[in-house]
């Protein structure tokens, strides 16, 4: 008998997810951009899914955008914050997921200032160093720190980080791929500008994710088209 113990990397599909997906693949084949009945039916299903995600986060429906997963969502938040919001400085840590680390390293090569905060032996980010970096900076700043480490599970005191970012007028992005679906997040109480989720981390399908974008920090589309 095989026992699967790698759920932090990805989870198997839940039976109820398989059933819903099968129903959608069979019955909701219309183009959701079409105005005929089949298109409207598909569009209604998408908007119902958007409403479900928004409700989980206590967000507005218009703040939820579907993506292919965490990597796309994280890239979109970071790169578009630089492109659209005038971010010239990024504060992060050396223990972020590679889709964040590689993104900010590439942006650093293009002239964006990069500050990596120290972490202790348990992977905990120094909040004192974060506040110092925020206080000393004089350029528009994005803080990007993951909610829970994907390798060792170390949690971030996300409420305190959000408070510091708000105090020093910085944008806050959190990679919440490891925690969405497992730990409650209320964006009405915790001021986060961007966060990401990926369905395959909580028994959903691979290739399905979302990004939450706070209405006060709206970005232009990351991918142009329909």
Give a verbal description of the structure.
By secondary structure, the chain is an alpha/beta fold. Helix content is 36%, strand content 14%. Helix 3 runs parallel beside helix 4 and helix 5 packs parallel to helix 6. The termini are far apart. The model has no long low-confidence stretch (mean pLDDT 96).
Given helix and strand content, the structural type is alpha/beta
Helix coverage percent of residues?
Answer: 25-40%
Could you tell me the radius of gyration in angstroms? 18 Å
What best-fitting shape do the alpha-carbon axes yield? globular
How do the helices and strands line up, and which of them pair or pack?
Elements: H1 15-27, H2 37-57, E1 64-67, H3 70-85, E2 89-92, H4 98-109, E3 113-116, H5 127-136, E4 141-144, H6 158-167, E5 171-175, E6 194-198, E7 209-213
Parallel strand pairs: 2-3, 2-4, 4-5, 5-6
Antiparallel strand pairs: 1-7, 6-7
Helix pairs in contact: 3-4, 5-6
Summarize the structure.
With 226 residues, the chain is α/β, with parallel strands linked by helices. The chain has helices spanning 15-27, 37-57, 70-85, 98-109, 127-136, 158-167; strands at residues 64-67, 89-92, 113-116, 141-144, 171-175, 194-198, 209-213. The longest helix is centred in the N-terminal third of the chain and has 21 residues, at 37-57.
Q: Keywords, please?
A:
single chain, about 230 residues, alpha/beta, 7 strands
